[in-house]
Write a structure and sequence with these properties.
Blueprint lengths: L1 H12 L4 E2 L4 E2 L5 H4 L14 E3 L2 E3 L6 E6 L5 E7 L3 H18 L4 H17 L1 H12 L3 H26 L3 E4 L10 E9 L2 E5 L7 H12 L3 E4 L6 H18 L6 E3 L4 H9 L6 E5 L3 H8 L5 E4 L5 E4 L5 H13 L11 E5 H16 L18 H16 L3 E2 L5 E2 L2 E2 L2 E4 L16 E7 L2 H9 L3 E2 L1 E5 L3 H10 L4 E4 L12 E2 L1 E2 L2 E2 L1 E2 L1 H7 L1 E9 L8
Helix pairs in contact: 4-6, 4-8, 5-6, 5-8, 6-7, 7-16, 11-12
Length: 531
């Protein structure tokens, strides 16, 4: 009860962000923004959930909260603990809305999405502030996530109009022995209700990357935001709700249920009204994949992205990419550099260059735009520390001294990592980059292709023939040549092999996954040929 009261007080009183350099209280909005987002919270500051266009309080009478990672996991925001009955309501609202929305012209669907993007840009600050509070994302990066998401929505609208406005005509006489007495009209139709489950590290961008393709394709969505990142997601949902109202679209197109995945997660992912599950996260996705049955899956589940640095590489370029790729957002990115494979003849020089750049990284609070900020949870920081300790005990050397305060882990480059160490294979999801010194291409490729992950990889060389040959040998969804792993731009295809995922993302690929092929065959009384 005391913890719940503390969370209510934080949610109610945190109207302005006050920073004294060591501790902060975060605002959700300025006075001008308060009215736009006023429907999201109860009088005591608890956040509501969204079904059929109405922000509601759960019938469970229960709430749950998240924490503020940058403040030693002090209470953060409080939101509803939805029941399975409320999950049912969300899916039924989505299904009913989908039936109407599927009959809506493409240009009107696109207009709705453009309005959402406009609202997100106009009311960016509260969403960015929520990201700073809930996941300790640096302020400038939080703002970028919101504006990037608005750009993604606009692009999805335009791409959907182009790609879904084109069909196919097949004539029967292309088949041996047949006449032209059948005409097959092939088109793409909506798949139905899409369940969207985004991760904590990009709770807005990786949510709208599911919602926007779904809506332009004629679907409706049910969203389950991550616990850390829930409030940012609720703010984004309000932009969709307001746009739905303005454009006269069905209210149930966008629904958001909140609660712990351990309590409603299985019920959501196995719901009979879910026609596709789009999930971004970690190993939980493996269990989801085993339980969903005959439902299409779009999944991205992490990676152990390796960076191969060949002897002829531009070492300054490689060092800069390793630092950017390995330590941006404290390494909490699926596409972070998580393993450096340095050829022995250049390893010392490369490591010295990387270590010098790591030493210059700033560490501290997210509102100060530090390079490295607190990890999302104590559990995450404990896991990273365990990986580092294991490597040191087995003979690895740290290029920087180990330092940690609560969730805040200082960046460290770990040299002389070997195959016997956990860091060689496990994904740290923190500001730790291991280096393995390799003697040959075969030696390096072992760590790429024997990994259980296969999301992305990168390589640095000036030899274009070598680059293309090795890229073909790397069993990953994407290979970056002379650049760090990256998911963007958001219209690029994004996929993984093995335990890194199922299906492909990227706007046009998501639209394709969220539609079905439909054929209408016109049978003619007699063959038809142009003369």
């Amino acid at each position: 009860r005391a913890l719940a009261l503390a969370r209510r007080l934080v949610s109610r009183d945190a109207r302005r962000r006050l920073c004294d350099g060591s501790r902060s209280v975060f605002t959700m909005s300025s006075d001008d923004e308060s009215s736009f987002y006023s429907d999201l919270q109860t009088e005591d500051g608890t956040f509501k959930f969204l079904v059929n266009g109405i922000w509601r309080v759960s019938d469970s009478g229960l709430t749950l909260g998240n924490v503020r990672p940058a403040d030693a996991n002090a209470p953060g925001f409080e939101f509803q603990a939805c029941t399975t009955g409320e999950v049912d309501e969300a899916f039924h609202a989505a299904r009913n809305a989908h039936k109407l929305w599927a009959k809506t012209p493409l240009h009107k669907r696109a207009s709705l999405l453009h309005e959402v993007a406009r609202l997100m840009r106009a009311h960016c600050e509260p969403m960015a502030s929520a990201l700073v509070t809930e996941i300790a994302k640096p302020q400038k990066d939080a703002t970028t996530e919101v504006t990037r998401s608005a750009d993604l929505i606009d692009y999805a609208a335009e791409e959907g109009v182009r790609s879904l406005g084109v069909g196919q005509l097949l004539t029967s006489d292309s088949w041996t022995g047949a006449n032209r007495d059948k005409l097959c009209l092939v088109s793409k139709v909506p798949i139905g209700v899409v369940l969207c489950i985004p991760p904590f590290n990009y709770p807005i961008n990786l949510c709208v990357s599911k919602i926007a393709p779904a809506l332009i394709a004629g679907n409706a969505v049910v969203i389950k935001p991550p616990t850390q990142g829930t409030v940012a997601g609720l703010h984004a949902a309000e932009c969709f709700r307001k746009a739905l109202q303005k454009c006269g679209a069905p209210a149930g197109l966008v629904n958001v249920v909140t609660g712990r995945g351990s309590e409603i997660g299985d019920y959501l992912t196995t719901h009979p009204l879910a026609n596709l599950v789009s999930f971004t996260g970690g190993d939980t996705g493996l269990q989801v994949a085993k339980k969903t049955g005959m439902v299409p899956l779009q999944m991205e589940l992490g990676g152990k992205d390796a960076c191969l640095v060949f002897p002829d590489a531009d070492l300054d370029l490689a060092a800069a990419a390793i630092v950017k790729g390995g330590f941006s957002y404290s390494g909490q990115r699926c596409t972070a550099v998580k393993l450096v494979l340095a050829f022995e003849e250049i390893a010392d020089t490369l490591i010295a260059k990387v270590a010098a750049k790591v030493d210059k990284l700033t560490v501290g609070r997210p509102e100060h735009n530090c390079d490295v900020t607190a990890l999302v949870s104590k559990k995450s920081a404990d896991f990273v520390e365990a990986l580092v300790n294991d490597s040191v005990e087995k003979g690895a050397t740290l290029c920087q001294p180990w330092r940690r305060e609560d969730n805040l882990v200082w960046p460290v480059l770990v040299d002389h990592v070997t195959a016997e160490m956990r860091l060689a294979w496990e994904e740290p999801f923190g500001p730790v980059v291991p280096v393995i010194r390799v003697s040959s291409e075969e030696h390096a490729l072992r760590f790429v292709n024997e990994s259980r992950y296969g999301l992305q990889g990168c390589l640095f060389t000036k030899d274009v023939d070598r680059a293309m040959r090795v890229a073909d040998l790397m069993e990953t969804g994407t290979v970056q040549i002379n650049g760090p792993p990256s998911r963007g731009p958001d219209h690029f295809p994004f996929q993984g092999t093995r335990d890194s995922g199922i299906g492909s993302q990227g706007i046009i690929h998501s639209i394709a996954m969220m539609t079905k092929t439909k054929s209408v065959v016109l049978n003619l009384a007699k063959p038809s040929y142009a003369t």
